[in-house]
């Protein structure tokens, strides 16, 4: 049987939530990945290293496989410089742009001192890059802010999270210290999948999936093993009822590696998959992961309609690949 072996695959952008939902979703990621950057947009947000360590312990408690969760610190005006110095990743959410961004930055200039400290101590700035403008322009409107940050802090590693448009993809070549993550859903879908037929609220997320040209720009990066880009799922579970009321976030964790295998194979890019989900992240984040070989086999499997009250991406569909 055809197979693909992945050494320590890494999810560079993951939402694991807390409480019962954490217990439902964390084991799914821990089975498929050797580690992840875990997002801090809980209620209340993770604003201190103590809170990040306590959350990390709850994640580890919830899983049963070797897995390294790296919890990002949520940047607010309450964050202390001492904690910034001890953080590996600091996440910047502009105020109100997405789920859990109610504690986000109203004025990015408020954090100049913190960005200076971060570039001196080597912490990575992870950014949700969307403006408060018209929905399809929000990412492109953020491009000048990325450029300004990259220019003002040339030694600061800045990761443009879950890029969904060509305008942001184009910045990678322009600025040495800009990096990016790309999700599976932005590689797979366009606006037509979300709202071209019956509205599919399960494909609704921030930033929204966009045009075929935008998707082509992202595919070009992923399928060419472009080294400044790593896979970050942005798997973001919400209870089914909340999704049907329009909550932003796609629960993709149960289908990630099999769907990536299928997609890369369909585009004759299987050789680039390892760079995209394993090697690039190692280089960008310099993380220490438990050794873990994940084998994908070409055996079809059908995605369940619901997992613990959450509807996974591709529910009811059959994927051509499975995790062995
Ligand atoms: C994420 C969530 O639900 O936490 N939602 C989303 O639409 N992607 C937050 C985020 O990463 O924007
Ligand atoms: Zn996210």
Computed over alpha carbons, the radius of gyration is 18 Å
Strand and helix order: EEHEHEEHEHEHEHHEHHHEHHHEEEE
CATH class: Alpha Beta
What does the oligomeric state look like here?
single chain
Structure description:
This protein is an alpha/beta fold and 324 residues long. The protein has one domain (9-292): TIM Barrel, CATH 3.20.20.140. Helix content is 37%, strand content 15%. The chain has a six-stranded parallel beta sheet. α12 (256-266) packs across α13 (270-285). The structure holds N-carbamoyl-L-aspartate and zinc ion (ZN). Zinc ion is lined by residues 13, 15, 39, 234, 236.
SSE diagram, text form:
Layout lengths: L2 E5 L2 E5 L4 H14 L2 E4 L10 H14 L5 E4 L1 E2 L6 H6 L2 E4 L19 H10 L2 E4 L10 H15 L5 E3 L5 H4 L1 H4 L3 E5 L1 H5 L2 H5 L16 H12 L5 E3 L8 H5 L11 H11 L3 H16 L7 E5 L3 E2 L15 E2 L2 E2 L1
Parallel strand pairs: 2-3, 3-4, 5-6, 6-7, 7-8, 8-9, 9-10
Antiparallel strand pairs: 1-11, 11-14, 12-13
The chain binds N-carbamoyl-L-aspartate and zinc ion.
